[in-house]
TrEMBL record:
Its main location: membrane. It is found in: Cell membrane. Belongs to the cation transport ATPase (P-type) (TC 3.A.3) family. Type IIA subfamily. The keyword Transmembrane applies. The chain crosses the membrane at residues 48-73, 79-95, 243-260, 266-293, 723-746, 789-812, 824-843. It is a multi-pass membrane protein. NCBIfam families: ATPase_P-type. Keywords: ATP-binding, Cell membrane, Membrane, Nucleotide-binding, Translocase, Transmembrane, Transmembrane helix. It comes from Flavihumibacter fluminis. InterPro entries: ATPase_P-typ_cation-transptr_C, ATPase_P-typ_cation-transptr_N, ATPase_P-typ_cyto_dom_N, ATPase_P-typ_P_site, ATPase_P-typ_TM_dom_sf, ATPase_P-typ_transduc_dom_A_sf, ATPase_P-type_domA, Cation_transp_ATPase_P-type. Residues 2-75 form the Cation-transporting P-type ATPase N-terminal domain. This is Cation-translocating P-type ATPase. Gene3D superfamilies: Calcium-transporting ATPase, cytoplasmic domain N, Calcium-transporting ATPase, cytoplasmic transduction domain A, Calcium-transporting ATPase, transmembrane domain, HAD superfamily/HAD-like.
Length: 857
């Protein structure tokens, strides 16, 4: 359809809409006809395919093949049991993965953008999926365009369309019809397309296509991006590959040695393959994803919505949190507490004072259907002040006698905005903005000194200052741009407003500091306002620095790097400068979380290590660029998320430590037995059993482990730190070896004392050793007796449950047949438990030694 060549009236008529927007019945009828405004997502793998995928692993296939060979060779029970174990494994993997996927789906649902739509004459905030063709949609800087639209009204509207056309320079939009019918999308400048970004200005458009009928819908396939692996997963993958080769080598050696010793080839093959399957940590990367996805789900309950999964893992490494002031550290509940009118010259004769008039009409807030104001909280505060002090009637009268004819919208670089109003046969230009921005635009003859002093006085009291200036002209300036309009102004006055800090922020700042994280304030506000508030919340201390945007711009890269760790407040910075701050901190090897809400914040959000967007006040563009969204816009939430991130990482590390130690123990045991002249200690079933049951269940429960007591008292984890640092590598080796020694010792003793059931003892000791181990590694340095043996209920259930199942394997006659086990006497059972307890106490001893070592350090 050539909407771009049609007049606005024709478009409205063809879509059965009007300037009042659609009414409810029209919306319903169109919804029935066109459906929801959604892009079809990438086809999800159906559940059965997800299940089958669990078998799509080389080692599992080898195992199945081996089981079948062994069946053909005669031992059918082995075949069946191995197949059952493989099946159980697949079911467990499937359930985990399915739940993780569902959790991620629910999270992405939460992240759908909102849009302002005019229906029944009133603006409404809706989820953008509700838009139907014919809806009038308001576009503002920072929005993602929610549907294909023909523009009806534009005010300096610029749209960046690179997602559609590849052109990264924003396009100036118009509303007049175009002539050329078959122009390219990029040339249809009176249209706005779904998925593009409003980079400046304001506008209103009528939706002409939604969902898959939009231009981007037609090429939706191109948008689908794969999930990247997290740094941890990448490292795990690389490590896993190397380890696999090593294990395969060991298994081949084991097989050959076995043959030379005269073992039966088929059973030897099965042992070697089971060991390979059990010991190669092929499932670890997937398990890490699952742990991260579950972590993301828990984070959303704390109001932190994760957009990019790796963020869960990296949160724990944050060393600097650079936060906006307004709304994040403060409540964003602004109240005007002071006004300072100035006497202008040739004041228009208005029913209210000049400053009050400016406050009433220079704004973009609207009253919504529910009688609440929608718009920028700063402007709402200004308008509410007039509403309360001067009355509703006067407010409306001013809107009527000063109709707006043009505007230059606010942007955080200029820190200023202008509206133009018809006043009798003249035009009244009103600018408002930061005191210095307005001071620069005053007429040359005016001395801005006292003006700036007044602003500084208010700022020192922690007030946010908004300054006003005006000009009366006979004709609209030509061209209508910043240079021509915002110049030669006369002062009208200033308003000072307070925005109290959020109550919880003080504690959160303190928590950051004990956790080795530096909080930093970055704001567009006045340096004195910023410093006053920073001091109040404990963010700014004696020797720390406050730097403003101008000073920042004057610093060289090297100078900034030298100071950057001491600067706690950046004031009057433009969003572009945030990028310099991030980059400088990163050059100093810091791991930076950066908040942002505006469209210009996207680059700094993207390049920070964790970009944090605001869920309530943030623009769609900033949310798109962010790794994490704060659903409550609250600084405290970042600190909570960091804590949760540290916990999740800790638990993943414990989990990896647990699995690897166990695998190590199995390899040592089976590999060393023949070297010590003993028979192969375990059957394939035993190996697989230990891996799936004794290892799997308690291992999973480790992810429910609570945070360690000192989690926010220790410094952030270094990002270059491997998974095996801090003694984890040593632990895996020595505890694995110890388990093997205890197990082999049991084997030697039992064989020497003519225990018929020596293999059952070996199997039991190794299984129970895993349980002792998992209980002990729950904490890196708190003794478990102190922590409480059962303080993690899921783990307690897993351990007790596994113990009971193990007893079943030993004592139930049918299980004896399957597992080739034989009942143990009570005495032997107690011996096994006692031997396994050695592992538990050895790990506790390791903690004691480590604690002493760290204390000394
Ligand atoms: P933060 O970055 O912490 O959110 P901020 O919201 O104060 O800080 P900006 O929105 O860039 O940052 O505002 C910078 C300055 O611009 C403010 O201090 C104020 O003086 C002025 N200002 C803010 N909002 C408006 C507005 N709607 N119209 C005119 N001037 C404004």
């Amino acid at each position: 359809m050539n909407w771009h060549t049609k007049s606005i009236e024709t478009v409205l008529a063809e879509l059965n809409s009007s300037e009042a927007g659609l009414d409810n019945s029209a919306v319903e009828q169109k919804r029935a006809q066109f459906g929801w405004n959604l892009l079809q997502e990438k086809k999800k793998k159906p559940a059965w395919l997800l299940f089958l995928n669990q078998f799509n692993d080389f080692m599992i296939l080898v195992l199945i093949a081996a089981a079948i060979i062994s069946g053909i060779a005669g031992d059918l029970t082995d075949t069946i049991i191995i197949l059952i174990i493989v099946l159980l494994n697949a079911i467990m993997g499937f359930v985990q993965e399915y739940r993780a996927e569902k959790a991620m789906d629910a999270l992405s649902q939460l992240a759908t953008p909102q849009a302002t739509v005019i229906r029944n004459r009133k603006p409404e905030q809706l989820s953008s999926k509700e838009i139907v063709p014919g809806d009038l949609v308001v576009l503002e800087a920072g929005n993602l365009v929610p549907a294909d639209m023909r523009l009806l009204e534009v005010h300096s509207l610029r749209i960046e369309e690179s997602s559609l056309t590849g052109e990264s320079i924003p396009i100036d939009k118009i509303h007049k019809p175009l002539e050329e019918a078959d122009s390219s999308l990029g040339d249809r400048v009176n249209m706005a397309y779904k998925g593009t970004q409003v980079s400046a200005g304001r506008g209103v458009g009528i939706a002409v296509a939604t969902g898959m009928q939009t231009e981007i819908g037609k090429i939706a396939g191109m948008l689908q991006t794969g999930d990247a692996l997290t740094p941890l997963q990448k490292r795990m993958n690389e490590f896993g590959k190397k380890l696999s080769y090593l294990i395969l080598l060991i298994c081949v050696a084991l097989f050959v040695v076995g043959l030379l010793r005269g073992e039966e080839p088929v059973s030897m093959l099965l042992v070697a393959i089971s060991l390979a399957v059990a010991a190669i940590p092929e499932a670890l990367p997937a398990l890490i994803t699952i742990a991260l996805a579950r972590g993301a789900k828990r984070l959303v309950a704390k109001n932190a919505l994760i957009r990019k999964l790796p963020a869960v893992e990296t949160l724990g490494s944050v060393t600097f949190i650079c936060s906006d002031k307004t709304g994040t550290l403060t409540q964003n509940k602004m109240t005007v507490v002071e006004t300072v009118p100035y006497n202008g010259k040739e004041e228009p004769n208005l029913p209210a004072g000049l400053l009050e008039t400016c406050m009433a009409v220079n704004q973009d807030v609207k009253k919504a259907a529910d009688n609440n104001w929608i718009g920028d909280p700063t402007e709402i505060a200004l308008v509410e002040y007039i509403y309360k002090n001067k009355g509703e009637a006067l407010y409306h009268q001013l809107q009527e006698i000063l109709p707006r004819v043009a505007e230059l919208p606010f942007d955080s670089d200029r820190k200023c905005m202008t509206t133009v109003h018809r006043w009798e046969n003249q035009y009244l230009l009103i600018s408002k903005g930061a005191s210095e921005s307005i001071a620069q635009r005053l007429e040359k003859s005016y001395d801005p000194g006292p003006w700036l002093q007044e602003a500084s006085r208010m700022a020192k009291e922690g007030k946010r200052v908004i300054a006003y200036a005006y000009r009366l002209v006979d004709q609209l300036p030509e061209p209508f741009d910043y240079d021509q309009v915002e110049t030669e102004l006369h002062p009208a006055g200033m308003a000072g407003m307070i925005d109290p800090p959020r109550e919880e922020v003080k504690d959160a700042i303190k928590a950051c500091k004990t956790a080795g994280i530096q909080p930093v304030m970055i704001t567009g506000d006045h340096p004195e306002t910023a410093a006053a508030i920073a001091r109040e919340i404990g963010l700014l201390e004696k020797d720390e620095l406050v730097v403003n945007g101008r000073e920042l711009a004057a610093l060289t890269e090297a100078e900034l790097d030298q100071k950057v760790e001491r600067i706690k407040v950046y004031a009057r910075v433009s969003p572009e400068q945030k990028l310099n701050i991030v980059q400088s901190l990163q050059r100093k090897h810091h791991f930076v979380a950066m908040t942002g809400d505006g469209v210009n914040d996207a680059p700094s959000l993207k390049s920070s290590n964790i970009g944090v967007a605001m869920g309530i006040t943030g623009t769609d563009v900033s949310k798109e660029a962010a790794h994490m969204i704060l659903l409550d816009d609250n600084f405290t939430t970042i600190v909570k998320a960091v804590k949760e991130g540290r916990r999740i990482y800790d638990n993943i590390r414990k989990f990896v430590k647990y699995i690897m130690t166990c695998n190590g123990a199995e390899i040592w045991t089976i590999f060393m037995a023949p070297l010590l002249g003993m028979p192969i200690p375990l059957l394939p079933i035993h190996i697989l059993w230990i891996n799936l049951v004794t290892d799997g269940l308690p291992g999973l429960a480790l992810s429910a482990e609570k945070a360690e007591d000192d989690i926010m008292q220790r410094p952030p984890r270094r990002t270059d730190e491997g998974l095996f640092s801090e003694g984890t590598g040593y632990h895996i080796v020595w505890v694995g070896l110890l388990m093997a020694v205890v197990t082999l010792g049991t084997q030697a003793w039992a064989i020497n004392t003519n225990h018929e059931n020596w293999q059952t003892m070996v199997f039991t000791v190794l299984s129970l050793a895993q349980l002792g181990h998992v209980l002990a590694i729950r904490s890196d340095h708190t003794f478990i007796y102190k922590k409480g043996l059962f303080s993690n209920p899921s783990l307690a259930i897993a351990v007790v449950g596994t113990f009971i199942i193990q007893l079943g394997v030993i004592y139930l006659p049918f299980a004896n047949k399957i597992f080739k086990t034989a009942p143990l006497s009570l005495q032997d059972l107690l011996i096994c438990i006692g031997l396994a307890a050695i592992i538990f106490h050895a790990v506790e001893l390791e903690k004691w030694i480590r604690n002493r070592y760290y204390r000394r350090k």
